[in-house]
């Protein structure tokens, strides 16, 4: 068990005639937090969705845990130990917090439900208080916690997070990033984090990639990328 | 421009388009054939009525901002009253044949048929959020399955009932496959077409279905082999129990059959809501992309919704056939789909109690106002519009969570731990 948990090589993706990914190479080793930063429309969300098989990659290969998942249907990929908290949270607004968490646990047929739920509650105690409340009535931060908690209910080895800081107050962002770090340290969960909030993401992550127009232009450790002047200019100073 | 004036203007334009042919032109018969008489004054009056009516309505509504809050109170009250309204309705349904005459029981059968259809369609539209305008197709498949099986193989009602459900479910899956990628309006149009296709096939496959002549002589259901007939003897209901024969016995029996079927539909729906599949339906209605990201097999989830909803439509169809002893394509027109959908929407999508109430109000209302003849439809339309204005989310809006907390917290937590929550 030494190879990467996730490995993309030469992945392209299209929406009709529009090419959104132009040959992406990317690796995530077990136990790592890797962040993918880039401007609006760079293709970050597309990359996340392509890993999950929706849309499918047109060229290239996606290996998860050594297995080729490039052509598998989404629901099969999500049964292999990947979980995604999608962009915009997408929690079920009319369903309660409890029901949202149950939906997350469906893919593992409720195995270890109680233990996993308790883990989610220690990370986000607010969810426990709001258990009977409808998802749509939660605050933005609580909704994001629920989206992450729901993804965690499937007990993933690899967690894909698409812009968890979107539209949240700095204090809440710190709380959520803190939870991600805690998860990674204490449970060894591997995380691929998409962010526009480049500064905080690079400080949290072990390594980072910069995506521009559907192609990776830079890669390196979080500290390295933070120190690069072109990154500072494009994504940090007044960028976010 | 003043938005209220603009709105009234647009309404008037729509009215002009609609009423132009309907009111503005009148057909007159003459020796040489039909000819059209224009009626500009009547048309102008109708359009003006819409324009000023809309103007008055909007100004009046603008002045009363508190109205919607009051409405929410009403909705809450209805929801809370569900607690005792449900047992009261159920008790009333059980004793109805004893306290009512033949007419009342017949009306009860009719209402319950629509309650069952409403509950069946509710699975597809209310829970899974798939707008189906062709539900009557499954009703037809169920009815014809039973009729043909009994005619060809001499099978009885109770043997054919599950088969009718199975056939309808198969057709549900067949409809489901091509429409998997469709949503909203497009889904509605294709399902509507599907309903019409089934009816037209039934109408034209004369050698099998009898075409417009339909199928007659469909057998009545038996009670554990006992028939309901005036013949007497040990294999009839009256003979076996030593009762005097009366046709009401058969009608009452039919009533209990449909009551049982409807309650079965309700029970299955309530069960399903508490298991993974039912919860996935509701999640699918809210956000398909989120469902995919959670590893839900969207295809299977949608198809099961179509299949199970269709199966209940098929059961209801078999019952319809046995009750009437005669079926023809005329009974399965689009208006049936529309009525059932109206019941589900008016009741409040996804609400079991609301669906039952809406069926009682609508089908009962149809009967009560039978004397009004053609004005019935006008009244019906007005009632629909009024309900949609006053209660845009249906009679009983708001969804009951499928897992209870609070009082039953301990129990549900335990069930959850065992993976049954
Ligand atoms: N469903 C879609 N259909 C067509 N084009 C899309 C779709 N989703 C994204 N795109 C396009 O693909 C490109 C990448 O989008 P996205 O992956 O959402 O970027 P990011 O997440 O980095 O902001 C954009 O140009 C966007 O307009
Ligand atoms: Mg994005």
Instruction: Give, in spatial order, the strands making up the sheet with the most strands of chain A.
Output: 6-7-8-3-9-10
Determine the number of helices of chain A (DSSP H or I, runs of at least 4 residues). 10
- How far apart are the first and last residues' alpha carbons of chain B, in Å? 56 Å
* Morphology of chain A: globular
- Strand arrangement in the largest pleated sheet of chain B: 1-2
User: Mean of residue pLDDT of chain A?
Assistant: 93
- Compounds present? adenosine-5'-diphosphate, magnesium ion
**Quick one: CATH superfamily of the domain at 1-81 and 160-167 and 191-240 in chain A?**
P-loop containing nucleotide triphosphate hydrolases
Task: Write the element-wise H/E pattern of chain B from the N-terminal end onward.
Answer: HEEHHHHHHHEHHHHHEHHHH
The CATH topology of the domain at 1-81 and 160-167 and 191-240 in chain A comes to Rossmann fold
List keywords for this structure.
heterodimer, A: 240 residues, alpha/beta, Rossmann fold, B: 421 residues, mainly alpha, two-stranded antiparallel sheet, 17 helices, 71% helix, binds adenosine-5'-diphosphate
Question: Which helices and strands, and how do they pair?
Answer:
The complex is a heterodimer of chains A (240) and B (421).
Chain A: E1 6-15, E2 18-28, E3 33-37, H1 44-51, E4 59-64, E5 67-68, H2 74-77, E6 82-85, H3 97-105, H4 113-123, H5 125-129, H6 140-152, E7 158-162, H7 170-187, E8 190-195, H8 198-204, E9 207-212, E10 215-221, H9 222-227, H10 229-236
Parallel strand pairs in A: 3-8, 3-9, 6-7, 7-8
Antiparallel strand pairs in A: 1-2, 1-4, 4-5, 9-10
Helix pairs in contact in A: 3-6
Chain B: H1 3-22, E1 25-30, E2 33-38, H2 40-62, H3 67-99, H4 102-127, H5 136-153, H6 157-179, H7 184-204, H8 206-209, E3 215-216, H9 237-240, H10 247-274, H11 276-286, H12 288-293, H13 298-324, E4 326-327, H14 334-347, H15 352-368, H16 375-390, H17 409-417
Antiparallel strand pairs in B: 1-2, 3-4
Helix pairs in contact in B: 1-2, 4-10, 4-13, 4-14, 4-15, 5-6, 5-7, 5-13, 6-13, 10-11, 10-13, 11-13, 14-15
């Amino acid at each position: 068990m030494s190879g990467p948990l996730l490995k993309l090589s030469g992945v392209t993706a299209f929406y009709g005639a529009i090419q959104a990914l132009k040959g992406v190479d990317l690796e995530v080793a077990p136990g790592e937090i890797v962040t993918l930063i880039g401007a609006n429309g760079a293709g970050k969300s597309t990359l996340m969705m392509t890993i999950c098989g929706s849309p499918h990659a047109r060229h290239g290969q996606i290996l998860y845990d050594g297995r080729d998942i490039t052509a598998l249907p989404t629901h099969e990929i999500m049964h292999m130990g990947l979980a995604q908290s999608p962009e915009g949270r997408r929690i079920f607004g009319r369903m309660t917090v409890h029901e949202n968490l149950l939906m997350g646990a469906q893919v593992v047929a409720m195995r270890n439900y109680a233990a996993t739920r308790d883990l989610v509650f220690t990370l986000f105690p607010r969810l426990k208080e709001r258990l009977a409340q409808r998802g749509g009535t939660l605050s933005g931060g609580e909704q994001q916690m629920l989206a992450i908690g729901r993804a965690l209910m499937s007990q993933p080895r690899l967690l894909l997070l698409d812009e968890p800081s979107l539209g949240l107050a700095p204090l809440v962002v710190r709380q959520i990033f803190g939870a991600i770090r805690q998860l990674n340290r204490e449970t060894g969960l591997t995380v691929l984090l998409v962010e526009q909030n480049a500064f905080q993401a690079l400080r949290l992550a072990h390594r980072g990639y910069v995506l521009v127009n559907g192609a990776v232009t830079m890669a390196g450790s979080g500290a390295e990328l933070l120190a690069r002047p072109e990154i500072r200019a494009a994504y940090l100073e007044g960028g976010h | 421009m003043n938005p209220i004036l603009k709105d009234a203007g647009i309404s008037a334009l729509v009215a002009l388009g609609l009423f132009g042919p309907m009111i503005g032109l009148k057909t007159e018969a003459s020796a040489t054939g039909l000819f059209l008489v224009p009626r500009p004054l009547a048309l102008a009056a109708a359009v003006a009525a819409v324009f000023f009516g809309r103007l008055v309505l909007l100004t009046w509504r603008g002045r009363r901002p508190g109205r919607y809050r009051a409405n929410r109170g009403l909705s809450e009250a209805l929801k809370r009253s569900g607690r005792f309204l449900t047992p009261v309705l159920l008790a009333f349904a059980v004793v109805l044949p004893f306290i009512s005459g033949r007419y009342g029981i017949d009306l009860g059968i009719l209402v319950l048929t629509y309650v069952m259809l409403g509950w069946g369609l509710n699975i597809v539209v209310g829970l899974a959020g798939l707008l189906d305008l062709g539900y009557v197709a499954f009703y037809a498949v169920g009815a014809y399955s039973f009729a043909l099986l009994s005619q060809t193989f001499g099978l009885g009602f109770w043997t054919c009932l599950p088969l009718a459900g199975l056939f309808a479910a198969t057709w549900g899956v067949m409809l489901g496959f091509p429409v998997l990628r469709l949503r909203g309006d497009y889904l509605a149009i294709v399902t509507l077409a599907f309903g019409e296709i089934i009816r037209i096939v039934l109408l034209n496959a004369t050698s099998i279905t009898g075409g417009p002549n339909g199928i007659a002589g469909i057998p009545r259901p038996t009670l554990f082999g006992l028939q309901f007939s005036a013949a007497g003897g040990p294999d009839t209901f009256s003979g076996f129990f030593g009762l005097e024969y009366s046709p009401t016995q058969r009608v009452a029996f039919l009533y209990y059959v449909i009551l049982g079927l409807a309650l079965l539909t309700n029970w299955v729906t309530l069960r399903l809501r508490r298991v993974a599949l039912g919860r996935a339906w509701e999640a699918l209605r809210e956000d398909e992309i989120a469902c995919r990201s959670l590893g839900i097999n969207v295809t299977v989830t949608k198809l099961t919704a179509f299949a199970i909803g269709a199966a209940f439509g098929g059961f209801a169809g078999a019952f319809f056939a046995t009750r009437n002893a005669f079926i023809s394509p005329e009974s399965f027109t689009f208006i049936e789909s529309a009525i059932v959908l109206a019941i589900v929407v008016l009741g409040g999508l996804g609400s079991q109690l609301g669906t039952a109430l809406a069926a009682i109000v609508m089908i009962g209302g149809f009967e009560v106002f039978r004397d009004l003849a053609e004005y019935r439809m006008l009244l019906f339309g007005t009632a629909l519009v009024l309900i949609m204005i006053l209660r845009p989310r249906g009679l009983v809006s708001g969804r009951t969570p499928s897992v209870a907390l609070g009082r039953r917290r301990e129990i549900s937590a335990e069930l959850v731990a065992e993976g049954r929550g």
